[in-house]
Predict the structure of S-DNA-T family DNA segregation ATPase FtsK/SpoIIIE.
Amino acid sequence: MTDFYVFLGALVGLAVGLWAWRRWHPDSFWYGVAFPARVALVYLTWSHVASGCGLTRTRQRWRYTLDALPVVGPAARNAATVVQYKRQLRRVGVEKAPRLGLPRPTRLGWRVRLRLSGGQAPADYEKAAERIAHAWRVHSVRVVDVTPGHVTLWATMRDPLTVVEVTPETEELLKVRPGKLENGQDWIIDFRVVPHWLNAGATQSGKSNLANAIIKALAPQPVALVGFDLKGGVEFTPYAPRLSALATTRTQCRALLDDLVAELEDRMEQCRSHGARNVWRLPEELRPVPIVVLIDEVAELFLMADKSEKDEVARTGTALLRVAQLGRAFAVHLVVCGQRIGSDLGPGVTALRAQLSGRVCHRVNDPETANMTLGDMDPAALDAARAIPAETPGVCIVAGQDGSWHRARSVYVSEEAAETAARDHAHLTPDWNDLTGSSLTTGPGCSAAA
Ligand SMILES: Nc1ncnc2c1ncn2[C@@H]1O[C@H](COP(=O)(O)OP(=O)(O)OP(=O)(O)O)[C@@H](O)[C@H]1O
Ligand SMILES: [Mg+2]
């Protein structure tokens, strides 16, 4: 009886010890206890899981089998079924799961490399990922790394986008790191690779936060920032010290767009005279300063109160489209934010959208907005966009021009942080009149903000 109590006491002690370990030092508990237990489970159940997910292949293998032979003679004549079993070596079909590598722990789960069976493609694993996640009792399983003949599966115990900690600033020109991708990698926006971005989402979904992150990251760089803020300037005015120009009314927008188009034509002429295809091929001392144009709530640019504004809106749309078309080669980049950017806004909008090859779709209220933003992407991307919950602002679907998409989240950048960055780097702000040449005017309303 005493032994039993000692045993029971030891068990309770162990359970309390493990609970306390997990409670007070979750990281070491994960690597020391939980991860090895998970690995054992994954290995022990892998053949069943792979079979259930349709990832096994049938292979012919030599096996001993038991064969029944009818026995001839008096017993057979009596019509009684008399059989004799005989062991025989023969080839039989055996289900074979893909070979699982050694799982390696990560902070949120583990990564494991798999060898593809003959005839399999990484897409087979992408399709099975949700089923594997349920079988492994984890938040999600993603195919993260594909090499010929192998894939790496990344299992995460909880959503890696719950907490995002990165610094948006990078060392490289026109490169910003606004957040994290779901696969754990940094989310990088490189304007030299994808020149223009569309940033869409419902109200309070995190569009302005992403703009803040971009401003904070670009503020220390030798670039000119330009703001269009038709919400009366409430969004971008605090960043005025780092903005070379800021337009807050429709007239100012028109004038600023005209300046931009004229500047693009200047740059085009300069490239032509030096036989360069784009500004990056010009000698370094002649290369113009890159311009990043941020537009908050683009729909305001296209809205008309009455018919008299029709021409004005059409001219604005055309100028914006020209900036988008020419900007790619001449280092003028657009970040266009809006709740929905559809053809209902006006005739030029669809053409403008086609020029914005980088897409960021935050939480949306209706499926059409997701369709509009992400275009005809993989339906899974649209489903993922529609599934973004309201309580995680900043979570979005990011699509580059190569057709791949990721779930991502921007790092939280408060207005104060972006404002401080703008103020601290105010001395780097190129003067709009110097930048665009003395022959140009910034228009009566465009505040040269520096
Ligand atoms: N990545 C993020 N992490 C944490 N909180 C965030 C993040 N992005 C946004 N938020 C929070 O969500 C709120 C709304 O974000 P934001 O102002 O960027 O939305 P919005 O899409 O610009 O909305 P609106 O259309 O009304 O301008 C902000 O107050 C901010 O605190
Ligand atoms: Mg906003």
